[in-house]
Amino acid sequence: MENVFVMDHPLIQHKISIIRDKNTGSKEFREAVKEISMLMGYEVTRNLPLEEVEIETPVCKTKSKVIAGRKLGIVPILRAGLGMVDGLLSLVPAAKVGHIGLYRDPDTLEPVEYYCKLPVDVQERELIVVDPMLATGGSAIAAIKFIKDRGASNIKLVCLIAAPEGVKAVQEAHPEVEIYLGSLDEKLNDHAYIVPGLGDAGDRLFGTK
Ligand code: URA
């Protein structure tokens, strides 16, 4: 699949098994989501530009590389996306965090934005949109559109678990957006839950329901 990267590192697979298990409680679930996000972030940030600076070690002066240029923004889709923010921030603490909240209009079934607060310089940033579950793709497609409407053009989508239906929908709507996944699951069920999935990620993160 074009622009889709499934990160099947053993540590990621191991931790995804933990969050799939219905007997995993909220505390362990949250911790594992944070750790998976951090491990995925390692790969998602692989192409960050570097620049050379001069530093002095205890032994001598030398040239060494530091992250340069394009700045990062992390944009969780509320509310489950919040669970992925800290893991990414632990890798790139200087990243700004935007938030986007959507609900589905009960009449039109279209996603409606109810909250959107992004870094002011969003056009200059590489944005990492995060949502643990990519199911139908409706929220991710709408969130990416709202972000593009505000001038952003360099956008990646990072999800822990996806259904093929959602991946296809995002690819069709936003073909240039790279999609990073921890697992590509089998399918959606009749209630738009991912199978086998992990249930409702928001409820499991926050202990609701
Ligand atoms: N959202 C979730 O939290 N879980 C799913 O399986 C699908 C959408």
Low-confidence stretches: none
- Estimated structural class: alpha/beta
Level-2 CATH architecture: 3-Layer(aba) Sandwich
Number of helices: 6
Distance between the termini: 35 Å
Bound molecules: uracil
Counting DSSP E segments of at least 2 residues, the number of strands comes to 13
The mean pLDDT is: 95
Q: Helices and strands, in N-to-C order?
A: EHHEEEHEEEEEHEHEEEH
The geometry reads as globular
Largest sheet: 7 strands, parallel
CATH topology tier name: Rossmann fold
Level-1 CATH class name: Alpha Beta
Number of domains: 1
Considering DSSP H and I runs of 4 or more, what fraction of the residues is helical? 25-40%
Radius of gyration: 18 Å
**Strand percent estimate:** 25-35%
Family: Belongs to the UPRTase family.
EC number: 2.4.2.9
Function: Catalyzes the conversion of uracil and 5-phospho-alpha-D-ribose 1-diphosphate (PRPP) to UMP and diphosphate.
Keywords: Allosteric enzyme, Glycosyltransferase, GTP-binding, Magnesium, Nucleotide-binding, Transferase
Question: What's the short version?
Answer:
The chain is an alpha/beta fold and 209 residues long. It has helices spanning 10-20, 26-44, 85-91, 138-149, 164-173, 201-206, and strands at residues 4-6, 50-56, 61-67, 71-76, 96-97, 99-104, 111-117, 125-130, 133-134, 154-162, 178-184, 187-188, 194-195. The protein has a single domain (4-206), classed as Rossmann fold (3-Layer(aba) Sandwich), CATH 3.40.50.
Topology at a glance:
Elements: E1 4-6, H1 10-20, H2 26-44, E2 50-56, E3 61-67, E4 71-76, H3 85-91, E5 96-97, E6 99-104, E7 111-117, E8 125-130, E9 133-134, H4 138-149, E10 154-162, H5 164-173, E11 178-184, E12 187-188, E13 194-195, H6 201-206
Parallel strand pairs: 1-11, 4-5, 4-8, 8-10, 9-10, 10-11
Antiparallel strand pairs: 2-3, 6-7, 12-13
The protein binds uracil.
The site of uracil has 9 residues, from helix 6.
